[in-house]
Description:
By secondary structure, chain A is mainly alpha-helical.
Amino acid sequence: MTLRNAVLGLVAESPKTGFDLLKDFDVARSVLWPAPQNEVYRVLRQLAEEGLIEQTAVGARGARTYAITGAGREQLIAWLREPSDYTLRYEPMLKGVFLGDGDPALRRQRAADDAAFFKAQLAHLERIEAERTGPDPRRDARRMALHFYRAMAAWADGVSSDA
Amino acid sequence: MTLRNAVLGLVAESPKTGFDLLKDFDVARSVLWPAPQNEVYRVLRQLAEEGLIEQTAVGARGARTYAITGAGREQLIAWLREPSDYTLRYEPMLKGVFLGDGDPALRRQRAADDAAFFKAQLAHLERIEAERTGPDPRRDARRMALHFYRAMAAWADGVSSDA
DNA sequence: ACGTACATGTAAGGAGTTACATGATTTG
DNA sequence: CAAATCATGTAACTCCTTACATGTACGT
Lengths: 163, 163
C-alpha cells in the first residue's frame, strides 16, 4: 500500500486534484514512479471515504481539489515514523542474477544499456540540483536518487570493463 | 510480471520444485525478494501450462520437479535481451520525499534506522563475498546489491550528519 | 508415536495494469 | 469551430497479500 501513502504525502504538501497528482507521478521530473491514472482516482476516493483527505473545492471541468485532514496528517506521520519496508524489486538487478550463466555478449550488452540509462538519469538529476535555488523539501529524496544512480552506473561500468 | 521471470530463470539454473524455489526467494540469502508461497505455485502451474517449463519428476511427498523447456529458455533469453523496466519503487526513498517537510528529529530517526539496515545488509553481502570460492554465476547481482547498499548507507549517513 | 520439516493447495480481498470512453474548457 | 488540454470514469484482467488448510515423510 505504498501508492496510498504517496498520494497522502503529496496531498499533504498542498491541496491537489487527481490531475495534479498525475503530473507529480511523472518519473522524468521526480523520484516517483508513474502511477496509473486510474489508481490515483481510486486511491483519492478511498482516502476521502476514510476521512484522511477531504474535498475542498470543485473547480472548472469538475476538478475536485482534495486537502489533507487532521486524521490524514496523523496517519502520514505514523507511516513516516514506522520502520520502512526495505523490500527491493528492481528488474535490472533481477536480470543480473541470470546473466552470469549465459552469453557474455548479452551480459555486456545489458550492462551497456543499463549504464546509458543510469547516466542519463544522473545527468537529469544533477541538472535539477544545479538549477535549484531556495529551500528544497525534496532534497533528501533527490540526494538518495543521486546516490542510487551513481552506484548503479558504477556497477554497470564495472561489468562492461570486466573479462 | 517479474516474479514470472524470476521463477523461469531459477528453474533454468537447474530443475526445481516449488519448495526449492521458496528457499531461493528467501531475502536473507540472496538479492531476491520473498515471494508468497502461494504465488510461486501458481506461477509454476501457469508456466507449465504455457509449455515454458515441464514437470520431469514426482518425488516423495508429491514433490513436483520442473525443468525448463526449449521454449522456456528462448523466452528467458528474450526477456534478458529486451530493455529493462527501470521503474524503482522503494519505500525508504518515498519516505525521503516527505521527510523534508516535517519534524527534523523524525527525519534523523528515519535516516538512522535506514543506515542500520543498509549496513547490516552490506555486512551480510560482504561476508558472503568473502566466503565464496570457485565460479559464481550470481556475482553480478551481488555486486549490484553491494553497490546499492553502500550508496544507500552513504546517503543515510549524509542525512544524519547534516544540519 | 510424536514432532519437525517437506510439499502443495484454496479462498477472499486488495492493488496494479491496460484499454477504452466521456465530457468540459481553453486556445488559436 | 476545431484541436489540444484538462479532468475523471468504467471494465476486465492479472498479480499480490494474508490466512488458513491438508497431507506426507523423516528422525528420534
